Amino acid sequence: MKKVPNGTQIVWDITPKKDIDGWWYVVIASGLLVLLAAFWPSASPPDQVEDVTLAAIPDDKHLVAPDEVVKYVKRFQTVAIAEHQKFGIPASVKMAQGILESASGTSSLTKQSNNHFGIKCAVRGCKHRQCVNKCDDSCRDYFVKYETAWLSWRAHSLLLSNPDFRYASLISTCGDDYKCWAAGLQKKGYATSKQYRKKLVSIIEKYGLDHLDKGNKFH
After folding, report:
1. Model confidence over 5-49: pLDDT tens digits?
2. 151 pLDDT exceeds 70?
3. Where in the chain are the domains?
4. Closest by Cα among 22, 175, 204, 173 to 97
5. What pTM value is reported for the model?
6. 196: how many CB neighbours lie within 10 A of its CB?
7. What contacts 151, CB < 8 A, 6 or more positions away?
8. Alpha helices, H only, the chain
9. 54-118+147-214 adopts what CATH topology?
């Protein structure tokens, strides 16, 4: 080996030799990629996302294809407008809750019981003909079983407008302000999700459901 005088700067030439076959490049590159993948630090997701839209909520069992939402809106828009006129609950809010709670009518609970708003039985273990057992907050929850979808929509109106229950004050304090309703429903415990307000507002604004509050129907 040729001796190099002390203090001499050595520059390593890592240019591949011309006489190396092309497939060796692939082997070398693959090895480098494996090493990078093993030691490169993975990105950590943020602890909380403040501005959540419906499409950005991960692992949400209520998310369905937009065409299913549109079919649901067209199916129940007449009922939503009529219930708004009779009880003072914005049609946009009722529709958004129906979309969210029933997955636009596609959830197993809704198909089995016609329950579009996740309304639970007052007592657990009620008669099988009247209630359906489904896991929600716990696997001992019982939900009301309705003979028709319309009865579910009417029961929801009666629940929210019942003066002896906690939601009725929203009719006078919020009027047709769907954002106020969404915040009030979450605050008063309609659902346990901390994102409930944001989900309702996102659904209403994504599909323009506030038009229903003016009595306008989608075609």
Report:
1. 554 443 333 333 444 455 455 445 555 555 554 444 443 333 332
2. yes
3. 54-118+147-214
4. 204
5. 0.68
6. 19
7. 114
8. 22-39, 66-87, 91-102, 108-113, 149-161, 169-174, 178-187, 196-207
9. Lysozyme (1.10.530)
